[in-house]
Amino acid sequence: MQKISQQSKLIILLELLFVSTRLGLTSFGGPVAHLGYFHEEYVRKRQWIDEKSYVDLVALCQFLPGPASSQVGIGIGVMRAGIVGGIVSFIGFTLPSVLALMGFALLLHGANIDNFSWLHGLKIVAVVVVAHAIIGMAKNLAPDIKRKAIALLALVAALLVQSTFTQVVIILIASLLGYLLYKDDAETNGPNGVHFISKKVGYVCLSLFFSLLVVLPILSNVTAFKWITMVDSFYRAGALVFGGGHVVLPLLENEFVHTGLIDEATFLAGYGVTQAVPGPLFTFAAYIGTIIGGWQGGVLATVAIFLPAFLLILGTLPFWNQLRSNSKIKGAFMGINAAVVGILIAAFYHPIWTSAILQPIDFALAAILFSLLVFCKLSPWVIVLTGAVGGWAISFM
To answer: Which family, according to UniProt (predicted)?
Structure first.
């Protein structure tokens, strides 16, 4: 009987790997689109999770920092086959884009990027994609005057005080403002929580999450070892991203461009290519890690940036009912979400706009690409390909 049980579990894991890999190969369009693909595959087609549990899981993952769509995928894997199922689901959904971006980074590694005129087009693609993200995020995350004011304060602070800890301080202040402004009127209604992890496992995962957030910077400063410093930077980026994958851009830019580990042109070219591949935007870390430390750096960066997502989803599932019914906590997160809009606008200006829009023809190409993306609803890979061709054509003008 035990043997049959083990065989059944293996079959479930293999099926989970197959389905999640197929989603990883075909899920274009960012986290909102990913959630739509997940709903179609996991809820409607396979009925691995019911509608109520799916909505509740999505609410939890949007409440937490980190890549929401990846956390939903991990959560569904956990519900299907335990913690191993969560790992398998994550590997399937993430590996295709990780391999593609690591391959692109290896192609560029050691090359003189200034000789590739088409890469300038990819930097213009980054302008278009982030502008589109800002418009949608501002509408959803800063709809009223109080949250608009928080976003404005975050924007000004991020532009005028540029340091490694600026974003962290902004997030902390925004959470305090959100707590004070919205503690009495944040919505608390919603479906009940889901429970697939014991509270003991939850405590261990949350303790590990916060411990690494404290210990890794200390180890990085004490040892000055390149790989520990890299893990620290990617882990903090993965732990402090609120509001969607695009917000990882300013955090990683602070960690790696400002410190000279990667130049702006290479950084933005990789971000542009990230829009062309399916799967989560957090796989941009695989590109940066590969540029800095080869394929080993790419693997390490991927693990480090997604580890907080794992620990948070496993750590909070048992306590979701209590968290979401606390209006004060929800108010703090409303403030944080407004602040990330300002942080992203600051990153949109520098380095994205200042390094990509250098002449009128650059702005013209950006306007064309924006129209194709927003009004014509073309796929992201089409926008990236068009941008690369446009960048190459501009070099002859």
So the answer is: Belongs to the chromate ion transporter (CHR) (TC 2.A.51) family.
User: Structure pTM?
Assistant: 0.78
CA-CA distance, 309 to 273, in Å (whole number)? 23
Least confident of 2-16, 256-270, 376-390: 2-16
Which residue is listed with tokens 């335990």?
Answer: 82
Nearest to 233 by CA among 288, 311, 176, 309: 288
Residue 255 near residue 233, CB atoms below 8 Å: yes
Instruction: Write the DSSP string, 201-227.
Output: HHHHHHHHHHHHHHHHHHHHHHH--HH
Confidence of residue 3 (pLDDT cuts 50, 70, 90): very low
Contact 78, 196 (CB under 8 A): yes
In angstroms, rounded to a whole number, what is the distance separating the alpha carbons of residues 389 and 55? 41
pLDDT of residue 306: 95
| pLDDT one-digit tens code per residue, 143-180 | 999 999 999 999 999 899 877 678 778 888 998 999 89
The per-residue pLDDT for range 93-121, each reduced to its tens digit, is 999 999 999 999 998 876 665 557 787 88
Sequence-distant (≥ 6) Cβ neighbours of residue 306 within 8 angstroms: 67, 70, 90, 94, 238, 282
Please state, in angstroms and as integers, the Cα–Cα distance from residue 390 to each residue in 300, 305, 346, 368, 378, following that order.
34, 32, 26, 10, 16
218 CB burial (10 A radius; 0-12, 13-18, 19+): exposed
